[in-house]
Amino acid sequence: MYSVKEIYYTLQGEGAHAGRPAVFCRFSGCNLWTGREKDRDKAICQFCDTDFVGTDGPGGGKFADAAALVASIQTHWTGKGGVPYVVCTGGEPLLQLDSALIRALHAAGFEVAIESNGTIAAPSDLDWICISPKEGSTMVQETGNELKLVFPQPGFPPEMFENWAFDHLLLQPMDGPDIVANTRNAIQYCMDHPKWHLSVQTHKYIGID
Q1: Which of 25, 48, 88, 130 is catalytic?
Q2: Residues 179-202: pLDDT tens digits?
Q3: Which of 35, 88, 175, 194 registers the highest number of CB atoms within 10 A of its CB?
Q4: Is 49 in the active site?
């Protein structure tokens, strides 16, 4: 059984694949926060702005097995040509995503990406691994394609991760009331430390999910 908050077709808005058409499959649940506002001050990650509670979003629901979930994901890919691409996100998708589902997605022709907080080891058969560390958590996944660090997190400075085995090191300004200052500081950090590239949440600027 897979519990999914929502499934929808859009463009990837951030990171190394920004602009790429993708089906987003947002799994319910997270191991760093309940997702409920009353618990935010007790959460490990207190800046999360994503609704991953329940299964009531567009395309969401309970799926009995991998075949049922893949069938739903397939209906959302409406692009013509190109390689179908699915981003498994959350919450924390690795609480549910398993090799059975990855195999079924591959059999259906999808490239499979994950966006994870890095506290759970990722299966080796994923096509793209994006890890976004959250201050106060215990990191387990120290390799992948893309490390996307929300900035600033005083306990998780960028230099802590710059020698980890990732192809792309990205700084993403923390959204919220300090977004202007955070963006300015992230830009300066990337200019001073060229290993790092700036990641901007373009979907929030162009008005897509």
Answers
A1: 48
A2: 999 999 999 999 999 999 999 999
A3: 88
A4: yes
